[in-house]
Give the backbone structure.
Amino acid sequence: MIPALPGRVELEPGRLIEAGPATLSTGGAVSNVGRALHTLGLPVRLVGMVGDDPFGRIVRDLLGELGEDLAVRRGEPTSYTVVVSMDRTDRMFLHAPGCNDVFGADDIPEAAFEGVSLMHFGYPPLMARMYADEGRELEALLRRAKERVPIVALDLSLPDPQAPSGQADWPAILARCLPHVDVFLPSVDELMFCLDRPTFEALQGASLGHLPPAMVERLADKALALGPKAVGIKVGERGFLLKTAMGAETLGRGWGGACLWHPCYQVEVAGTTGSGDATVAGLLFGLAQGMGPLEACRAAVAVGAHGVEAPDAVSGIRPWDETIARIDSGWLSLGVSLPPEWKPFETGFTKRVAPGNL
């Protein structure tokens, strides 16, 4: 639920703030990434869980035929989120995990893997079974997926430091799980929380999207050392960093040993809800279409840019033919300041990439 707020407001106890109409939309990795890929032109299968309650019925109604594979868990509430999105500030979330807390590896039926070339799993910090016991349930799910699907992708959400998810041992969880992941796609703040908690806490309140590029790259290196073939980091309005291992050639020609930074495209921002998921969808679309790393990064930031042109997470996404036409028309990027070792390359920047990889 995304209430329309009158510009930037101060949230104070006891105050009534008059709001406009609320946008009602599905959200989260299943809906946002899945529906974006569907709009881009890929056939998708959405697998998740809702409760047998009014919110669950609304979710299934909003998703239509795409929601046919959603399991209904009786006696558990449907997850919901209230998104507080104001002008000139990052959005805030009031989130209830609901039945997502009881979702486990056995809730993905075997038939769901049939004919699938790529599986994307999102938001284990919002799913209690996934981060409990040092992530053994998440490891089981990813191991099972990797045995059946050529490409497995994983995204995070930011744990609440005061909640059980914020007390989980995320370095141990990721060390256990990332060897079964091909493409790891966190945001810069999520990755810093999980792999460099002291620095995250020291910088609390600062815009982590404006970290020095070397710090973002070091985070990517830490994640790569845990076993995935590629790490893509969403860096807010500064764009998207992709870094891959030499073994990433299994993802496609030219994917081994890439290090790319692609700035965001210029748009009029209506809302940033789901922008990270839209960016993930663009990259996964590029992978599924056999694009090289630069083309896939370009697709990632383009789909992410379309996503922020609407207040909700999915209505701004456009089919791929419209997206590529806008790119080819000379869509301008936002400026991004990078150190001299990053060399301009077409619409992005590259660093230490083996000859011929792009």
